[in-house]
Amino acid sequence: MEERPAVFLDRDGTITVERGHITAPDQLELIEGAGEAIDALRETGFLVVVVSNQSGVARGLMSEDDLDAVHRRLEDLLARRGASLDGAYYCPNYAGGTVERFTRDTSCRKPETGMIDAAVRDLGIDLATSFLVGDQASDIEAANRAGVAAILVRSGKGGFTSERAAELGLEVAHEAPDLAAAARWIVDETARGRGDVS
Fold it and tell me: Would residue 68 show up in a list of annotated catalytic residues for this protein?
């Protein structure tokens, strides 16, 4: 399988409006321009892959079926804007959860790289030419650990993250107001530095 670059995306606060633990499909709302941004990234030749911590399952706030329903809603909302995903990985695990099955192995939970590692295995991703876009320090740290360029968006919880990332010594390649702006920067960087990735 030929390796391709990817843009890994956090979900809540990056693609969708931050509302705490989203446990039902009707709570999901795309951030303006997110669908178009994902479409533009895929048109440029990137795989677009969601990597999202969803501890609501471990906390007993929702079931795995609920999580699946929320994801189907995300895919539907994106499809209405002509966009789609190449993969989606969710970590339901959380050490402080109340559902025993989901409190044991947290190696998938950002800032760990389990979800990214799984996507690399499944999709044939070249990490050296990939990016991760998110709004929290755990996103930035996961990107740093995986060896992909980290982009911080100020949507969601991102307004508080820049200072926190600096305190932790995390490397941020770029800061953007939202996913639409982050995607434009990635496309421009690709055109300037690497040529067409497709």
Answer: no
Cβ contacts of 195 within 8 Å, gap of 6 or more: none
**Catalytic residue of the set 10, 86, 135, 178:** 10
* Cα–Cα–Cα angle for 81, 122, 68, rounded to 5 degrees: 50
pLDDT tens digits for 88-117?
999 999 999 999 999 988 999 999 999 999
Per the annotation, the verdict on 66 as an active-site residue is no
Q: What is the pTM of this model?
A: 0.94
Domains and CATH numbers, the chain: 6-160+170-193 (3.40.50.1000)
Angstrom CA distances, 43 to 16, 36, 83, stand at 21, 10, 10
